[in-house]
Write a structure and sequence with these properties.
193 residues; mainly beta; 6-stranded mixed beta sheet; 3-stranded antiparallel beta sheet; 1 helix; 16 strands; 4% helix
Length: 193
């Protein structure tokens, strides 16, 4: 344990909303290594890195994000695709999924008993009711037998100019017999000129 941590770090379950890991009293440095596919586990480097000190401490923790994005920035003038591969694992085979979008940030909110890392706004209300942008592909459907799927959105060059300088947060939720059963992390997309 190190005195005066500068950051509280909690890993929260997207399914139950319960704290899974609490590093608040153990660390004063946190950095995240972003996974490139939804089946990769994100790595958190946690600790007190001080190579000159005897009490230096760094530990790697992993978590499964369930959803990643092909881009973190998208140029409005150039347009492009946002590809969203999902991997919820075989335990969620054939379950329904839905992509949700928020322009207000990363909540969290509860949908049923599941904590979802988004904030309610007009984008979220629209996507909750399956009202997606015109050029979207598979924003909702059923996961494969392996618990995977891919969704996405296409932005044509010059389309949605009002998004310049804005960010959107995207998460996926899964359902079991109509009830929310789990959530991914939220991915952040920033829109540039």
């Amino acid at each position: 344990h190190f005195p005066s941590p500068s950051t509280n770090v909690l890993v929260i379950s997207g399914k139950s909303g319960l704290t899974m890991l609490d590093f608040s009293n153990e660390i004063n440095t946190v950095s995240a290594l972003r996974p490139s596919s939804p089946s990769e586990k994100a790595q958190l480097l946690i600790g007190y890195p001080n190579v000159a000190a005897v009490n230096s401490y760094v530990e790697t923790k992993e978590f499964h994000p369930f959803l990643v994005s092909s881009v973190s920035q998208l140029s409005i003038s150039q347009g492009g695709d946002i590809i969203l591969p999902m991997d919820f694992g075989a335990q969620h085979a054939h379950q329904a999924y839905r992509i949700l979008i928020s322009g207000a940030g990363m909540g969290p909110i509860y949908i049923g008993s599941v904590q979802v890392p988004l904030e309610w706004d007009n984008f979220l209300t629209s996507t909750w009711y399956s009202q997606y942008p015109r050029l979207s592909f598979q924003p909702e459907g059923n996961l494969s037998p392996a618990g995977t799927a891919t969704a996405g959105f296409r932005l044509l060059p010059g389309q949605r100019a009002a998004l310049v300088g804005q960010k959107l947060w995207i998460a996926a939720v899964v359902f079991d017999n109509g009830l929310t059963d789990g959530s991914s992390v939220a991915v952040e997309i920033e829109f540039t000129p």
